[in-house]
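Good day; I would like, with your permission, to put a structural problem before you. A protein sequence and the structure tokens that stand for its backbone fold form the material at issue. Thank you for your consideration; the sequence and its tokens are set out here:
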Amino acid sequence: MKKKIAECKTEVRGIYGYRRVRVWIEKKYGIKMNHKRVQRLMKIMGIQAVIRKKRPYYGKKEVYVVSGNLLNRDFHASRPNEKWVTDITYLLFNGQRLYLSVIKDLYNNEIITYQISRRNDLKLVMDTVKQARKKRNVQGILLHSDQGFQYTSRQYHNLLKRYKMIVSMSRKGNCWDNASMENFFSHFKSECFNRYTFRTSEEVKHAVQRYIQFYNQERFQQKLNNLSPFEYRTQAA
């Protein structure tokens, strides 16, 4: 039987596991064997199938948390720090990629804070929320996002719970539920990022900083009575 197992290995160049080896022997020699016996003999002989390399798994590896769509496309806020939206976009340049994470106030479309990273991971969104908390009193604020793996992680939900923030999420696969955030990214890319050629990550970071400062301080918006987000919030105050 060992000779027949060795013969099978040579003929199929070692790609069969013990179950297929058993079938091969039965079909070629008409000998019926228990698959466990074949497995035991192959182990004694040191024969192991050439296993196909498994593709990396990019799905959710942990229990995830999904919240309801509390924002429900109501992008109007009656006061500052009532409703925030957040999202991530990628920036491709010179064969490289950076990720931009942003939080925006729906009251005056002001960019509260942002973070840039080479990795689109949980740390990026956590750092963005932590930075926002350093700038504003976040207690009671509704923070809306999509159902990206970072936003559905337990760590993210525990952080917002600790900060006493309210979690809201878009419905799965529905980008219109977070259209306000997509609108900012569209303006940023058409008015800044896509107009220039960047060689280094530092150049990209500097451009992001300049544009967000311009967007908050100077870029007037019709829906804000032709005031910039900063002017609108200052006038209301």
About this structure: The beta strands are 83-93, 96-105, 110-117, 142-145, 166-169. Helices lie at 2-12, 18-29, 35-45, 122-135, 154-162, 179-191, 201-217, 229-236. The mean pLDDT is 91. The longest strand covers residues 83-93.
